[in-house]
Amino acid sequence: MHPDSTQRSEGIALIAFDVDGTLVDHPEGKVIWELLNRRFMGDDRMNHQRYHDYQAGIIDYPTWVALDVGGWIEAGATRPEIMTEVRALRPVDHATEVLHELRDRGYLLAVISGTLDVVLDEFFPEHPFCGVYTNHLEFDAAGRLTGWRATPFDMDGKARALDHLAKRHGLPLLRCAFVGDNVNDLGVARVAGLSVAFNAKSAELESIAHVVIRSPSLAPVAALFPGCGDPPVGDGLP
Question: Does pTM top 0.85 for this prediction?
Answer without folding.
Answer: yes
